[in-house]
Design goal:
By secondary structure, the protein is of the alpha+beta class. The chain has two domains: 120 residues; 84 residues, no CATH class. Helices cover 45% and strands 19% of the residues. The protein is built from eight helices and ten strands. The strands form four sheets. Strands 4, 5, 6 and 7 form a four-stranded antiparallel β-sheet that branches. A two-stranded parallel ribbon has the order 1-8. The chain has a two-stranded antiparallel sheet with strand order 2-3. It is elongated.
Length: 231
C-alpha cells in the first residue's frame, strides 16, 4: 500500500473545493452536486496515477456503495461500504439514493467538503449584526382598548417589561380567536389607540404586527371566499 498511499497524499494537495453550484428548489439552498464533487478531485487523482471507481452492491431498501482508488502500481484502497436508504421503491427513488450515496462516499473518501461558489464571501468580512434599538422604558400601567367590544385588548405591563412585546403578544392571541375578516378589522379598530402608541414606541414591532393583520385577512379571504380590500 506504500505506492498508493504516497500518491493519494500528493493528489490531495491538488484537490479543489466542491462548489455549491446546484439549487435545491424545495429548501431554496445551494449544494455541491455529484459532478462538482468529481470535478474537485479527478484531476488530482489522475495526475498522480490514481483511477477513481465506485462500486455498488444489491440491497432491497436502498443503495450500498464504496469508493475505491486504484493506483497504476496495482494497489487499491477502499473507503468502506456506505448505505443510503431509498425514499421510494421505484427507479427514481433508487436513482436519487445512488447519486446521494456517490456524492457523500466520494467526499468522505477524499476528505473534501462543499464550499460556496463565491470568492468574495471568503475575502469580505462578515457583516456586523444590526442591533435592534432598546424599547423605550414604560412604567407599570394598564393597557386596554374599547371595553364595550369583545375584541378590546386589556393587559397589565409590569415596570421594566418590554411594553411593545407585551402588546404584540396580546394582539396575536386575540387574532387567533378571530373567525372572519370583519373580526380582524374590528380588533384593529377597537384597539387603534394602543397601536398608535405602539407605532411611536417601537416602529419595528408595529410594522410586524400590521403584516400579521394582513396575513389573517388574506387567510379568511381564501377560506371563506370573501372579497378583501386592503385598507
Amino acid at each position: 500500500m506504500k505506492a498508493i498511499a504516497a500518491a493519494l497524499v500528493k493528489a490531495q494537495r491538488e484537490f479543489g473545493p466542491a462548489l455549491k453550484t446546484s439549487n435545491n428548489p424545495h429548501f431554496r439552498t445551494k449544494y455541491a452536486d455529484l459532478s462538482a464533487c468529481i470535478e474537485a478531485v479527478i484531476d488530482g487523482l489522475n495526475n498522480n496515477g490514481i483511477y477513481l471507481m465506485q462500486l455498488t452492491e444489491d440491497h432491497s431498501d436502498g443503495i450500498k456503495i464504496q469508493t475505491v482508488f486504484v493506483h497504476e502500481s496495482g494497489e487499491q484502497m477502499s473507503s468502506g461500504w456506505l448505505f443510503v436508504p431509498a425514499a421510494k421503491a421505484d427507479p427514481q427513488g433508487f436513482g436519487s439514493a445512488l447519486t446521494y450515496a456517490r456524492r457523500y462516499s466520494l467526499m468522505a473518501a477524499c476528505g473534501i467538503a462543499p464550499e460556496d461558489d463565491d470568492a468574495n464571501s471568503a475575502k469580505a468580512p462578515a457583516p456586523k449584526p444590526v442591533a435592534k434599538p432598546m424599547p423605550k422604558a414604560v412604567p407599570k400601567q394598564e393597557v386596554s382598548g374599547s371595553i364595550a367590544s369583545p375584541w378590546g385588548i386589556k393587559l397589565t405591563v409590569a415596570e421594566g417589561e418590554d411594553w411593545a412585546a407585551a402588546v404584540a403578544e396580546a394582539t396575536n392571541f386575540t387574532l387567533e380567536m378571530a373567525q372572519s375578516v370583519d373580526d380582524v378589522n374590528n380588533i384593529y379598530k377597537v384597539n387603534k389607540d394602543i397601536f398608535t402608541k405602539l407605532d411611536s414606541v417601537d416602529k419595528v414591532t408595529y410594522s410586524t404586527l400590521l403584516a400579521t393583520f394582513k396575513q389573517f385577512k388574506e387567510k379568511f379571504m381564501e377560506t371563506q371566499n370573501v372579497e378583501y380590500v386592503p385598507e
